[in-house]
Predict the 3D structure of the following.
Amino acid sequence: MKKLCLFFIFFNIIIFSTNIIAADKDVVLPREHIAKLKRIAGFFAAELKNKNIKTVTVGDFTDFNKKPSARGKTMAREFKKQLEKIGKKNFKVIDKNPEALITGILLPYQDKSKWQLDLKAVYANKEQVITAYTAIFKKPKQVAK
């Protein structure tokens, strides 16, 4: 009975963890979203350069309750990638001990056919805001199968 119970627990852990991993990889950003994230990254790169910031970290974009979602993680990865490309001569995007942090909150917007992304860059040691930006993204139309 003990072995059966352990097997059941182990089996459920494997099943649920693969669903979480698969859900994270299923999000594909439309070209319009990538282009908008690139423009926003350019704005942030200019502000970081003006403030002479040399290292920055980009966190996962979360919901209002600070919980990351698959879409938020995907958008954060794309934003980080664009920021690295644009700012490579002026600063580095790193994971630990940065001078600045960039965080984002991704929320449904009004009629729920759009998302609102609120981004903020703050000094890591002062928690003083460097810059902020709000963008609206249209939800992509579902592809009929």
